[in-house]
Amino acid sequence: MENKDFNKIISLIRSAPEDCDEAVIAVLKATSASLALDLLKKEQSSEQDFIQTKEKSKKSRLLKFTPQEIEKMPRTFRKEFRTQGCTAHVYRMRSGKKTWCYVIRYRKNGYYIVASSTSLDEAKKKFIQKLNEADKYGTQNDSGVPDTFIKFAEYYFENFYKRKVTASTHRIALNQFKNHIAPYFNNIKLKRITPKFCQTLLDNLDEQGKGKTADDVFSLLNMIFKAAVKHGAISSNPMDMVFHKKHEQEHGKALTRSEEKMLLERTAGTPQHLMFAIALYTGMRPNEYETARLDGEFIVANNSKRKNGKVELKKIPITPMLKPYLEGVTEIKFSSLRIMRDRFNKIFPYHRLYDLRTTFYTRCQECGVLPAARDEFVGHSLGALGNAYTDLSDEFLLAEGQKLYYKYD
Asked: Would the pTM of this model clear 0.70, i.e. be above it?
């Protein structure tokens, strides 16, 4: 029914005599019925625009926008929608017994834009809004964030992770990733990775008896997926559903005093002799050996446990046990850590190089070194408050260092 039809009806009602109420009511009822019929036909016409399939299946057609709607689009898209007329697809999917959901999708020129609503007009509005957002801020691909697992992990390691940890920690994490994670995930899309897929990898490592590796892989995956969530690459972390029981870690075992003596006797005359003495009587971590240098009555080295790129030095006094080995030495030169570890393992197959640190810590306890000095020697944190308000003097550290004297068994 058009405007001219409404005008005729209004004129007819105005010209009707006063005693013709029944006729006027009849005309209004007929008009109402005609309007309802028009609305029904319009709805049926709209329904026929979709490709007919089974009632519950997805229905799709190319979507046309009116000139007024195109004017609301950003200039980047306006020309394309004017010239081609229909470059987006609309899908109608059942969302309830009597309701439908309209999903509009556009994938072209590096853009992938999706908007949906239970009303087609509202879906159009949301779609136009997302077009404007994409034009203003760019797509996810424009941000340079990869959408495949390996590429994203490499992106995260290079741009973020290596800023938070030491070079050696970064190197170890990369090796774990390349050896145990990358071959399993390959180039799978981040959004296709499921908790079950991750669970299977950890189960395989546990079955192979690689408990420590499974712990490391679990931590790395959790870290990578958390970063992916924060980047908007995925909506949730699949590791949140994964079950993993941390394996019981074997702690280091201190060398006996007779084993200390054996180590220094068996390496006498080799380039590693001084290196073993310094490692044994300073308690440094193996990855700190190469940073060690002489500084008066102290050996100074980097504390490798400080993160976020912060460089912190620790001072270990030259104790009575170490002093004889430094006679005439003006510079500390550590050679290959690999050679040092290999030689140590040949002498003590059931120990590991890190046990020298455990030995030093144990001797500090046995010789009565105060905890504050001991923690300073080995580079342990005193806690945020302790670190902020503790500044131990050189005299105190030297005095505590003198306590480290004992005889071999």
From this structure: no
